[in-house]
Amino acid sequence: MLTELRAFASRTEQTQGAVALRAIEAHAEELQEYWRTPQAPSTGLFAITEQVHRRAEPGVQTQLRISPKDAVTLDNVASAWGAPSRSALVNEALRRYVKIGTREMTETLTS
After folding, report:
1. What CA–CA distances, in Å, run from 39 to 14, 33, 35, 64, 82?
2. CA–CA distance, 2 with 4 (Å, rounded to integer)
3. Less Cβ around it within 10 Å: N or C end of the chain?
4. Are the CB atoms for 53 and 38 separated by under 8 Å?
5. Which of 76, 98, 94 is nearest to 20 (CA)?
6. CA 99 centroid distance within chain
7. DSSP character for 84?
8. Do 93 and 31 meet the contact criterion of CB atoms below 8 Å apart?
9. Can you tell me the distance from the alpha carbon of 68 to that of 54, in angstroms, rounded to the nearest whole number?
């Protein structure tokens, strides 16, 4: 994902931080629901779910520069939407935004 983020940011002449924030805004509705825990079946004793959110690609850490105000907003959004962490929210948003944006750019170039 880091390679795609760098390439996308470069192509669109944006900072990686700006791409991350735009990604969250672009996919806000989907992301709000992504980590919602399904209701436990009424017949079981435990609230065991089959919902697992893991990616096949290895994790790579990068640092995004955003304003302190945006960092607070990002923390609040991650908490309100039930994301396991701020990083998980950013990663999932970028995965959706960058891959869709890259596909659209490729289609435009080949058309």
Report:
1. 40, 13, 12, 35, 14
2. 5
3. C
4. no
5. 94
6. 11
7. S
8. yes
9. 29
pLDDT digits (tens, 9 = 90+) for 65-86: 999 999 999 999 999 999 999 9
DSSP string, 33-81: HHTPPPPPPTTSSS---------SSPP--------HHHHHHHHHHHHHT
Distance CA 22, CA 64 (A): 13
| pLDDT of 52 over the 90 cut | no
Cβ count within 10 A of residue 22: 16
Residues 6+ apart with CB under 8 A from 38: 49, 51
- Backbone angles phi and psi of 23, in degrees to 5: -60, -45
Q: Give pLDDT, residue 50.
A: 58
As a 3-state breakdown, the chain gives helix, strand, coil percent values, each rounded to 5, of: 60, 0, 40
